[in-house]
């Protein structure tokens, strides 16, 4: 689908006018949205708008990393829209020219929908222009990254605050690795976007930026905070993972202590019982009255001796 | 609550005068403090002071990272006040303009209270101005980070100096991970604040900095030291964590040695006893007089043999 | 083998003309390909083309890292062609001069073959020149790196999505280390190539780059994406490796639990049976009617007692 | 204690003259040393020399990191003197002005003592000036860092060269962690000092540096070498620590093999003996003549069978 | 020993002329080699050549890191010659001045010998000068680093390609750590040398570099490749080390499985045999004809039951 929005020199809004009417002298600025376009519509990028073939290639190809390319007067942006649950990235591209903006996306985009509606209000379309459309899209998209990171931080805090007794470490470990993978995926979008904003701010090629410097700096600021949160959370997951390793190793020690205590107490006792279970004809102890009780006493002594030896070594703490 | 402090051209201090009187030609400089302001008072940031909407948004939003934004003649600062125990960060914002300073905080702030009192003394309010208020706040806040780090270093030194015999490694490991988490939290405040000071020092946008360069450089210096201490302590905790892993693994070796020694000594003995416990009719040894004593001798020999073999292999060291 | 391709001032294509005819005033530009050259042909680099001895040395020596060297008007490029399966790198060199390009490779190259054919079409050889040959070779070669990385990512995703029950961790671990080694090898080609493109873009020495800046920037962009994918996948393999370590350690805990439970239940029971297997004459219990049943009851109680104790400690979860 | 040294325009040395005489036109340059000064003497920094309050604060406060601060014509240096055994840092501060140098230290300093004596020789005090005092102090102090690092390297080499048989890994591990902690402490002094020298070399604020550039570059060079040695030794300790982990884990494998071999050989044998120890009335084997010898043969076969099975699996290598 | 080589304005070679004759107007350029000089000869650095005392100090002191220092018209180089087996570094220093070069080494140097011979041929000494001596020495020395790294890579590849069955992991682990230590030592020479070349290339202080830029760039290129190979091999050894840890841990699992299977099968069986080895008078089973066979059947069932339970759990895979 392809839709247009144009604002005339005297501040009137024209919707869905044909592409041919966009370039008239009466048009102050325009916005064309390629919303899941058909192959025929895609053709227009080249045949009508004459965008650079490399930029058109980037629109159609698999997922690009967020970036900005400068082609003479037209600036080509690639941004990511992230699915809040799966973190799957969808590409949103736009061409920012001197007279208007052309957005392009192969999947429906909620963020574009919102900005489109916003620009149907007179207060907005009369005061702002296509440069502000670009800002609004960037701002909206970056704003959607925060809830994702907040959800991840919540999951992480929950993991951290769980008591360490009787927990299923293996399932917690897997959660930690899931979170690490999500942070990695998030970083692959956030870091190039941060660099993109930095390049917007430090370049003087894009005309709309100068007047709206504070606005773009605000997005850059958000991206700095996102980067720091991602790195900091990566380090927290590393610590969590290591602490689970320690806990696991501690439990192993406890298991081995149990095994060793039991073995060390009962092996000598069983051996003693084995001695008096031998069938030698001449074993004087067997024929005494006190033999059985004596051996039982010795066994008790050996058993408790072992027990107190372990106790003194601190194995039961 | 909203309170004001203004100094006239001839060095008189006016307290709690209304906002309307702040801009008169008689006022040399002023300080307005938004101390846990009501929604109506917050409105004044926009309606009376006409601060930039993005800066006002940052005041009201959740915790921002420490930063400085430049809006024409007004400079907007975000700084963190850290709770000494929980390390929870509270945001303190201020707007530094050519004629005065406006501070804003949603929670009560001890540091602002202190500076406020300090500026009620003639010696101060006559010689210094609103730029020095900004310096004093930054200095006070950064000074509060040191006791936190010193406490962490003390905890760490205590952990390090504890003997390694009979200690509860698991609880010490958990303490190490707590300290690591605290250092991480501290770093999220200190590093952006350090960058903020660096930007203050290397920019020439803020008029008060030039005359007080040494003062701001002193704060920057403190932040450099804090950063180094944090990084160095992070590395120390990593070493401590690894040394506990080694210790744990060492103890496991000791446990397994105990188990193996006991098993290796008693299993063959029990087996020998088992042989002479069999009920075969024709077992010549059973009927000899020396049989029992001979077997006991063999057992003793096997037992001590094993013992000395382990001793020679150094398992009892 | 040595082959030539030349385009005259009036747009005619000459193929396989002799080297002597390449420098005539009628020749607009030329391309000479040293395809697995004989030692005699290699001589021509020096005797006919007078290339710098260091560049010729680099052609003949073992594998060089991707790089660009500037010798007066001639620019010397070293690029890698990677075998899609073994990732073995073959070197492709070219000399880009003001009047033509000379390519050199000691192994047959599919990419050069393709570009050679492409330049036999009038539409191409009339519009483009030897600078575009250089671009096309770089573009083709870098494009071949993607399928390799996509295959690695697929292998990695397969590993990640495999269930964690009953898998052979050791073979999966080895796969992870194989992938890590492949990523390392890939990085040794991609990173110097990325730096090479960066130097092409930021230098003004190479005449063809300015007009085709967008084209070279597109290759640089591909290399940035490759770098990020490699680093990100390296981190994923590190996480995978660590998670296998955790899994392995978890299984060890399960094995030890089994051992300990069995030992702890049966050792005391065997000991009790051993007591009543002793041959003392005076053991009153042996002569009672209920003795056998009583001992069996005690054994059942001890066995189940141990079992429930472990159950309560959560060892069977 | 406070002592002075002044050189007159005609090259005469005046010692311990009063502060008031230092500023006369006859004095070419002077050196004042605050050696463990009394509170009254400390006052002079402010009342007589009028140094900047922030610099004076740094003198009195706890340990500062090595740094240089510029206050108009006076340059304030903080350097560390390290205790060769404990690596405890003592602060040595100096103020380098256009007419002289003022050194300040709260603990006695051997290095200052040495330089003081050196400057009592005519050959030195006539040719050199207070800038060379500054250089000499920096040089002396940095020279004292080398023996410390050489000692650490010796300890490390000794650890590395020790055979790996029968060593007490736990005590060696602890030595490695001690060395790591020392390197960390050393780095906290060396790195800021290196940065300080770099700033001296690349700044043109300090008048004496230009003429003595080679001298200051030599100290910087020493600090670069120290930094590299520290980092390289840190990596060596990391490798040593990891190799001890491997060794420990290897020993655990050996212990477990011993345990498993013994258990696997004797458990089945003890079981067989147990079978023929049962008291069933109808066990035909018990009543044959060859029964006992047959069972002993079976036991021998089982035992040796197990033994050779382990041997073939390579457990005894 | 001290030897000289001088070339006259009309291209004649003078060997072993005295130092006094080196500075005559007839001499175009000269080379003086201090080959394991005696203390008297060392004196000449100062008394005859008047080199800077700091440079002379560096010649005599213990091993310096590779570096370049500029003293007016003389440039002082420190380079390392590495022993191919032990990787022990020997220092080779040279002073490059406007009229000649002075080399200095306390140990005999094969590389200097080679270059010396090379410059005795007319073709060389007539066309090239002392600047080319400097280049040749650098080139020769850096070329000797490659065989060392190739040998290390070969050792590493051999380790990698060894099958993972029945190998002695501990000895392989030690080999890996030896290789890591060698790479570390190599890096301590290569990285400062790379920086030194970079400084030569980017500085315009050294007169000979401009004309021979391509030659020095070629050495820099070699050093870049060496650096990359070292880093890449360090990462490979890290992976190898980790994979041995995994393998070791896997073997431990296999050992523990063997132990647990044996224990779990035989403990219950031994217990059953123990029950019927008790000497109670009233144990009805003992007196039945089928008792013995029944118990043997139960034992078989228990044994095989355990066996198949482990089989189903996949412990025998
Ligand atoms: Mg696309
Ligand atoms: Mg936003
Ligand atoms: Mg916003
Ligand atoms: Mg998973
Ligand atoms: Mg999730
Ligand atoms: Mg904001
Ligand atoms: Mg806020
Ligand atoms: Mg302060
Ligand atoms: Mg202070
Ligand atoms: Mg705490
Ligand atoms: Mg200070
Ligand atoms: Mg570890
Ligand atoms: Mg080659
Ligand atoms: Mg391409
Ligand atoms: Mg392409
Ligand atoms: Mg392999
Ligand atoms: Mg593969
Ligand atoms: Mg592209
Ligand atoms: Mg690990
Ligand atoms: Mg101090
Ligand atoms: Mg020195
Ligand atoms: Mg010296
Ligand atoms: Mg210790
Ligand atoms: Mg020590
Ligand atoms: Mg030196
Ligand atoms: Mg030397
Ligand atoms: Mg070479
Ligand atoms: Mg060469
Ligand atoms: Mg070794
Ligand atoms: Mg070796
Ligand atoms: Mg080369």
UniProtKB/TrEMBL annotation, chains A, B, C, D, E:
Which Gene3D superfamilies does the record match to this protein?
CorA soluble domain-like (3.30.460.20), Magnesium transport protein CorA, transmembrane region (1.20.58.340)
Q: Where are the transmembrane segments?
A: 258-278, 290-310
Which CDD domains does the annotation name? TmCorA-like_u2
Has keyword Transmembrane? yes
First-listed, main subcellular location of the protein, grouped into a coarse class: membrane
Q: Where is the protein localized?
A: Cell membrane; Membrane
How is this protein positioned relative to the membrane?
Multi-pass membrane protein
Q: Which family, according to the similarity comment?
A: Belongs to the CorA metal ion transporter (MIT) (TC 1.A.35) family.
The function of this protein is: Mediates influx of magnesium ions.
Q: What is this protein called?
A: Magnesium transport protein CorA
User: Which organism is this protein's natural source?
Assistant: Cohnella kolymensis
Species lineage, top-down?
Bacteria, Bacillati, Bacillota, Bacilli, Bacillales
Q: Could you tell me the gene encoding this protein? A: corA
């Amino acid at each position: 689908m392809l839709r247009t929005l144009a604002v005339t020199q005297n501040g009137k809004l024209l919707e869905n006018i044909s592409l041919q009417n966009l370039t008239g002298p009466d048009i102050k600025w325009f916005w064309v949205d390629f919303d899941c376009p058909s192959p025929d519509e895609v053709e227009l990028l080249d045949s009508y708008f004459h965008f650079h073939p490399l930029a058109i290639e980037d629109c159609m190809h698999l997922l690009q990393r967020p970036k900005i390319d400068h082609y003479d007067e037209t600036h080509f942006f690639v941004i990511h829209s992230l699915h809040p649950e799966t973190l799957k990235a969808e590409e949103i591209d736009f061409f920012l020219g001197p007279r208007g903006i052309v957005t392009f996306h192969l999947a429906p985009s909620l963020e574009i929908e919102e900005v489109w509606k916003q620009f149907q209000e007179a207060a907005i379309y009369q005061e702002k222009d296509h440069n502000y459309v670009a800002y609004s899209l960037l701002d909206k998209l970056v704003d959607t990254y925060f809830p994702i990171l907040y959800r991840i931080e919540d999951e992480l805090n929950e993991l951290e605050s769980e008591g360490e007794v009787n927990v299923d470490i293996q399932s917690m470990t897997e959660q930690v690795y899931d979170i690490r993978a999500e942070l990695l995926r998030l970083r692959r979008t956030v870091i190039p976007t941060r660099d993109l904003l930095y390049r917007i701010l430090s370049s003087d090629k894009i005309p709309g930026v100068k007047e709206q410097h504070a606005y773009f700096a605000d997005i850059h600021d958000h991206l700095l905070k996102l980067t720091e949160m991602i790195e900091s959370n990566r380090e927290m997951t590393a610590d969590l993972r290591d602490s689970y390793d320690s806990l696991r190793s501690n439990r192993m020690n406890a298991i081995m202590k149990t095994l060793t205590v039991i073995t060390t107490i009962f092996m000598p006792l069983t051996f003693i019982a084995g001695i008096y279970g031998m069938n030698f004809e001449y074993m004087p102890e067997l024929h005494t009255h006190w033999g059985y009780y004596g051996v039982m006493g010795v066994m008790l002594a050996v058993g408790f001796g072992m027990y107190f030896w372990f106790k003194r070594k601190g194995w039961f703490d």
